[in-house]
Design goal:
The complex is a heterodimer of chains A (about 260) and B (about 325). Chain A is of the alpha/beta class and about 260 residues long. Helices cover about 35% and strands about 25% of the residues of chain A. In chain A, helix 2 packs across helix 3, helix 2 runs parallel beside helix 4 and helix 6 crosses helix 8. Chain B folds into three domains: about 40 residues, no CATH class; about 35 residues; about 210 residues, MetI-like fold (Orthogonal Bundle). Classes of the chains: A alpha/beta (about 260), B mainly alpha (about 325).
């Protein structure tokens, strides 16, 4: 796997970001004065009640949504318009249903005009790494939800992006598949050193994966607290689940999220 | 609360599940992949290249036969009834000829009928192709530009509401008795379903795919070619199937109004002479044009979007 990008400065910087959506009848504040700096190589997980603007936050970093006010930077450059230095994974796999798994992964290369041979080699590496071997030609509807999400993950990693943005990527999967995917994502993150921002509803997922957990409040979305996760960098799912530090943090988060939802 | 209970329930199960899958994953990629997804994996043979079996030619033929025998039976019943009524002269033969009489007429006058069929076929195909091209271009304009959407859509709708058959005489006055007015009429009639299905198809693109394509740094042309257009194809092909049958109507109506050749012209002639066998033969040829063209579009669809066809159960002759 390719090495991590040069670890200088911040990977993602947000200061005073506010987003308001104006409809004909009303004005909604999705994000209110959000400031967050993310270092290269960090794995930041964002938890919060539904509709707290977590997804909007990712879209702002990607340059897909323009903040009403505030500054956003990606890799030390101000974000204006869609960013190319990222990989994006959505809750839905969002695959092209007429393409096989491998061709879906290679879409990234075709859209970017990457070198074909190099992209093909990289795709094969990723396919092996995510256990998609043998399913290269399978169409999306022939794959299970977990497999589809693996394909989406490979597609997002094909160009070795310095930043990976994930919007509840495993939200639609069953509990066991989800744990599997968590363990795999953790391994991939360790191997690639990519900066990851992952939005989730699951406290267990947030704590297991994150080096830092950001807790957001219900609408308007604000950052209530940020926790550094005191778990080893190299984590094993079963070990983490039985670790008292995991329990303590999970309990604290649950309490915090309960009050965040109740206050609204 | 649900999360809470899920976590505790999952935790005890997690330990053995994870270690089990780990071991399997290290054994071999393929086996690992099958185990990793556990209960949610689609049942697939591990040695089958991970691909669900596609219908073979034999199975496809069987499916086709299965879908065709019922309409075939109805058709045969209809022919028998027709033959029975006509041969017994329950209805006089100058009104309803026997199938035999129609057959004789068709074979006797084959060279003439073939020439007229070719004329109508030519008008229909040209009209259909033009309608498809113009319709697709209009659909792209409408789907991509809000301004053009507002400017063009009402006009397209308005043009559809005007009875095209009523314009036919005007077209003859403007363009004479040649092929042009027939082709224009075929285009006008076939245009609308292409536009509507094209717009629907292009708009059905998953917005997340468009977001994704923006972060891939692709320009609008690449996004169109790789994502939006292939995504629109199932809708578009459904529209084209409707359009091709309508194009026949356009061509024949054009011939009714003023022509010296074509099946529509022959129909008027036969009608005037009370030549029922010729009239029936003519009708059969017109229907044949429609059916053949429809099947050709179906075949084009199967070749262009096999991924879509494979999602449908069996082979069907209806629009999806």
């Amino acid at each position: 796997m390719s090495a991590a990008p040069a670890a200088t400065g911040t990977a993602i910087g947000m200061s005073g970001v506010t987003v308001r959506f104006t409809t004909r009848r009303s004005q909604t504040t999705a994000l209110d004065d959000v400031s967050l700096d993310i270092e290269p190589g960090e794995f930041v997980t964002i938890v919060g009640p539904s509709g707290c603007g977590k997804s909007t936050l990712l879209k702002i970093v990607a340059g897909l949504v323009k903040p009403t006010s505030g500054e956003v930077s990606l890799l030390e450059r101000p974000v204006r318009g869609p960013q190319k230095e990222i990989g994006f994974v959505f809750q839905k796999a969002a695959l092209l249903e007429w393409r096989g798994a491998r061709a879906n992964i290679l879409l990234q290369a075709e859209m970017r005009g990457m070198d074909r041979a190099q992209a093909a080699r990289r795709a094969d590496e990723l396919i092996e790494m995510t256990g998609l071997t043998g399913f290269e030609k399978a169409l999306p509807h022939e794959l299970s939800g977990g497999m589809q999400q693996r394909v989406a993950l490979c597609r997002a990693l094909l160009h070795a992006p310095p930043v990976l943005l994930m919007d509840e990527p495993f939200g639609a999967l069953d509990a066991l598949t989800r744990e599997q995917m968590n363990a795999e994502l953790h391994r991939i993150w360790r191997e690639t050193g990519t900066t990851v921002v992952l939005v989730t509803h699951s406290i267990a997922e947030a704590v297991f994966l994150g080096t830092r957990v950001v807790v957001m409040s219900a609408r308007p979305g604000r950052i209530i607290r940020t926790f550094a996760v005191e778990l080893p960098a190299h984590r094993d799912y079963a070990q983490v689940m039985s670790d008292p530090r995991f329990d303590r943090l999970a309990t604290e988060l649950r309490g915090l999220l309960g009050s965040a939802a109740a206050n609204h | 609360m649900t999360e809470n209970s899920l976590d505790t329930a999952g935790r005890s199960a997690a330990a053995d599940q994870v270690s089990g899958a780990r071991a399997a994953a290290s054994a071999s990629g393929e086996v690992g992949a099958a185990v990793v997804d556990g209960p949610s994996t689609v049942a697939q043979p591990p040695s089958g290249g991970g691909r669900a079996p596609r219908p073979t030619l034999g199975r496809r033929a069987a499916a086709l036969a299965d879908s065709l025998w019922r309409p075939a039976l109805v058709l045969v019943a209809f022919f028998v009834a027709w033959w029975f009524v006509a041969a017994r002269e329950y209805v006089p033969n100058y009104l309803v000829p026997t199938p035999g009489q129609v057959w004789t007429t068709m074979t006797d006058q084959w060279s003439e009928l073939a020439r007229h069929t070719m004329v109508t076929l030519y008008e229909t195909v040209l009209g259909f192709v033009l309608a498809a091209a113009l319709g697709l271009a209009t659909a792209v304009a409408i789907a991509y530009s809000r301004t053009l959407d507002k400017a063009l859509y009402p006009i397209v709708l308005f043009a559809q509401v005007i009875p095209k058959i009523a314009i036919a005489p005007l077209l003859v006055v403007w363009f004479g008795l040649g092929l042009t007015p027939k082709i224009i009429l075929a285009v006008l009639i076939a245009f609308f379903p292409v536009v509507i299905s094209g717009v629907a198809g292009l708009r059905s693109t998953d917005p997340e795919l468009l977001d994704l394509s923006a972060t891939m740094g692709a320009g609008p042309w690449r996004t169109f070619r790789k994502i939006r257009f292939p995504n629109a194809l199932p809708h578009l092909m459904a529209g084209l199937k409707v359009a091709v049958t309508l194009a026949v109507v356009g061509a024949v109506v054009g011939e009714f109004v003023g022509a010296s050749e074509g099946l529509g012209y022959v129909l008027l002639l036969a009608n005037g002479n009370l030549d029922a066998p010729l009239l029936f033969a003519d009708l059969i040829l017109m229907s044949a044009i429609g059916i053949v063209l429809f099947v050709l579009v179906e075949i084009a669809e199967a070749l262009l979007i096999p991924w879509h066809a494979s999602r449908r159960a069996g082979v069907s002759l209806t629009t999806s």
